[in-house]
Amino acid sequence: MSYRITNLRDYANEYHKSVTSPEKFWSEIAEQFDWKKKWDQVLNWDFETPQVNWFENAELNLTENIFERLLPTHKNKTAIIWEPNDPEADSIKLTYGELFKAICKFANAMKSQGVKKGDRVIIYMPMVPEAAIAMLACARIGAVHSVVFAGFSASALADRINDCEAKMVLTSDGNFRGNKNIPVKAVVDEALNHSDFVENVIVLKRTGEKVKMTPGRDLWWEEVLEGQSEQHEAEVMNAEDLLFILYTSGSTGKPKGVVHTTAGYMVFTYYSFLNVFQYDADDVYWCSADIGWITGHSYIVYGPLLAGATTLMFEGVPTYPHAGRFWEIVEKYKVNQFYTAPTAIRALQVYGTEPVEKFDLSSLKVIGSVGEPINEEAWHWYHEHVGKGNCPLVDTWWQTETGGIMISPLAGITPNKPAHASLPLPGVQPVIVDAEGNELTGNNVEGNLCIKYPWPSMIRTTYGDHQRCKDTYFSSYKGMYFTGDGVKRDHDGYLRILGRVDDVINVSGHRMGTAEVENAIDEHPDVVESAVVGYPHEIKGQGIYAFAICDASDKSDQILEDEIKQLVRKIIGPIAKPEHVQIVSGLPKTRSGKIMRRILRKVASRDLSNLGDISTLLNSEVVEDIIKGANLD
Ligand code: PRX
Fold it and tell me: Pairing with 212, which of 189, 418, 433, 573 sits 20 to 30 Å away (CA)?
């Protein structure tokens, strides 16, 4: 039986079923997977605690549901196509059969180094097939992977290693990204100066860069693979055993480790992949995200492979060696579904339509967007020039915490409306609430987006700190999961995501907590206090604007600004580097001492028309100084 929805009526029926009998709905989908032991109860939940168990007490291994389940029909089908950074270099195609052997070998290799079920393994790697192999090998042996985007700094990496007490780090010598060669092993070495947990580092040779290998700790990838068997008996996992941890930024403190578990994540990523992208058996699907983000987990690796798809992985960047690289790849592999981020579209829009028109994109059937609200201009450009006006565009709203796509058109089924994520997937029950938590029903309403019923791939906890999970997601509105996003339901009942309503900035589709950037800035010895806000940025969606008080410094503002930018880059990574730093004499504060970010946001957005009432400020005189000194060019 296929669980692919084929028309709008079908969608309405399935949606209805999923809301009226969620347990029946999800258990029917789950039935087609291989279980070593079936569940006692489909769902056991309480959003107060919060506690959510799907497929309670069932036993399985997720990788058996990719390989053992599919090999009889998919052994010779291409599972992964890999396109290297350098277009002249050889690409790689791995069939399901070959991928399975590679995973078993690496699973055996990790085990031989002492990695056991439940151990945490950090993956800090470039976009190469070995990264996906490493994730799946972890799932095979029951180790919990935590992929860290290879653009993060040593200190950000060390924080994550320490938080999850990782036993092993998988990395490469270097990382090709466009015309850059990033020395990632050196970053790992530096991170490990601040960490005691890691016993082994396994290093893949990618760039051939000379690296320092610490005897007894560091091993070459090929070395650990030597003599390993291509067979591996999968570890038996409980449905709620941890599959992975993925760190993400929130509005307070350090990044938190979002925990996803095995069975629910498997069922939901499979189902959402199939339905949103309307994948057909011989299609070539490409998601251009990095595996360091949730999109890469759910829709490069797990969802597509569980659905028996051919998934393309690209090592490079959209503009190297030319601004048509994405489109060249679409032509080369006759890509049928292409999934990217609005920031990439906006960056490519700058080059005009010539690089798009040079290539044959007629294979494309579906185009997709993820990571931030897609503005109408980018939507139309993408739809018209890439999709040639006849590919459905799926604007998929979801989060690291949701594990899979929650609100999105189903390609070719849900009528497209520019910049609208549109309708919830079956099984997803979004509600719009006002500040008091009252549900706003009907159309033409705007408020905060919550989800009122569990879905299988939802966050289970924040690693090592369950209270934080409760406080962040389940305490704002009683009995609901709060997303942190604002949303509008229009006159047709379509949902349009309005962006974050908390102190989270979305830079090029990457989430940054303002507090996290402020903490990094405050490390500067001359900084007394800082405040960070987002402002509209033409390409990145939002840019980071930082205000800092450096009263006693004898350095010039220019020097301080540069030092602060470099410091943030060093502490978090290049993606967090502020676009603007403004040295100020004070920050606008309420009488209770809270920074009035609303005013700073207005200044950063160059929108000085209506600053609102500033008379209630403790120090209203600083506002004029801030406006005078603002970087408004
Ligand atoms: O604000 C929403 C925005 O990205 C946030 C989630 O970020 P992250 O956990 O990094 O996951 C990104 C990839 C799933 C959301 O809270 N966001 C994501 N997709 C969309 C979006 N905003 C508007 N429209 C979208 N399609």
Answer: 573
